[in-house]
TrEMBL record, chains A, B:
Family annotation (InterPro entries): Homeodomain-like_sf, HTH-type_TetR-like_transc_reg, HTH_TetR, Rv0078-like_C, Tet_transcr_reg_TetR-rel_C_sf
DNA-binding region (UniProt annotation): 36-55
Organism of provenance: Actinoallomurus vinaceus
PANTHER family with a match to the protein in the record: HTH-TYPE TRANSCRIPTIONAL REGULATOR BETI, HTH-TYPE TRANSCRIPTIONAL REGULATOR RUTR
Protein name: TetR/AcrR family transcriptional regulator
Length: 202, 202
DNA sequence: AAAAAAACAGGCAGTCTGTATGTATCCTTT
DNA sequence: AAAGGATACATACAGACTGCCTGTTTTTTT
């Protein structure tokens, strides 16, 4: 009966993936505190013991979920930027930010990455993760724009964080009150104005 | 033995205040999830039964704590603005924002108002509270500046939220990495640039 | 003063997390 | 290929915590 004979690495990867997928769905739907480990493991078709073998605790699983979400976000932003075909640094910056804004409008992303992650993981850990993904990308774009002399030179890191804060808040607002095209346009215009405000004046 | 004979309203107010004070200290120090109701009631010198009589649940007590923090914040911001003695709308805007930034640097404010509140209360409730306090003040300042023609006219609400997002993120950054005067200057310059970017060009 | 209402105290039930102990599956070494 | 070891997993358990329930004290009303 070795039909399901698998290597250890495959077994681990399978259960980890099942847990991350189930966790992502449930955390995104109900929030971290409202989802029990038994609910996750049940949804993943895995025992609680398996979960505690793969992850040190519930928080650790949540962290893996956050990484998963961030990974997807970077992919979506990158593809939006490359699809746009722009070469100008400022254009890329705007396209990237709007793609971020768009993705961050989804309930799952909001609940996990914007609301729960800071509280559950703490600001330091949370920012460390985002730096390796989305914010890292943003910093790169900003550096490129600065190097090209298209934005006023200034410290990149705080600038990037401030932009992120503005974008996240805008996304949360859109998700609640920006369902009308007009409201959404309003928010976008605010963001564009903010970014263009960084550009060096002609 | 009616030395401590008090009216019902006084009794309620006393226990509510004791719980809010103790809760604020503990929540601010350890975070919402790490503080048990028994820890709070013990610190407040009150039974758990009393707490559940005054508040519907732990979340409700936390909400009262958030209101308390917000109330203080508005007071501090207002006093900073009035002390500055400026009359120009833009000046007041900048002073107010920097006062906000300053206050939001404290660990207690960060943990309660910036990290836990959104996750525990949910974005809608959280923003509703802030609208009645700090953000409400900011919107008033922005409206005044817009009316005086000192900033480009644009929808106030999303603009205010975006500024708040930027400020909060800046405060969190300062608290971690901005302990050197130079870093702090960097962040402030980013914020000032952001706000001045809103001003109508001369 | 009696009755009603409000504030409070302590205990109980249900749930949840993390751990510990035992088992199955896979890998390595000889 | 068999034994020994390591890794992945399963289940039971202990401790903690939240919200409720019942009963008691204190204040207010009649």
């Amino acid at each position: 009966m070795n039909a399901d004979r698998r290597t250890q690495a495959e077994r681990s990867a399978a259960t980890r993936q099942a847990l991350i997928t189930a966790g992502r769905r449930l955390f995104g739907e109900l929030g971290y505190a409202e989802v029990s480990t038994v609910a996750i493991t049940h949804a993943a078709g895995v025992s609680r013991g398996a979960m505690y073998h793969q992850f040190t605790d519930k928080r650790d699983l949540f962290e893996a979920v956050v990484e998963d979400v961030e990974h997807d976000l970077v992919g979506r932003i990158s593809s939006a930027v490359s699809k746009s075909g722009f070469t100008d640094p400022i254009d890329n910056l705007v396209v990237g930010c709007l793609a971020w804004l768009d993705a961050s409008t989804e309930p799952e992303v909001q609940r996990i990455a914007l609301l729960d992650a800071p509280a559950v993981l703490g600001w330091d850990r949370w920012r460390e993760i985002e730096l390796r993904h989305t914010i890292g990308r943003l910093e790169a774009s900003l550096s490129a724009a600065a190097k090209a002399g298209r934005i006023r030179t200034q410290p990149i890191r705080p600038l990037a964080l401030v932009i992120v804060g503005a974008l996240d808040e805008a996304a949360l607002y859109i998700a609640r009150f920006g369902r009308t095209p007009e409201e959404e346009r309003n928010v976008r215009s605010v963001i564009e104005q903010l970014i263009s405000g960084l550009a060096t004046e002609a």
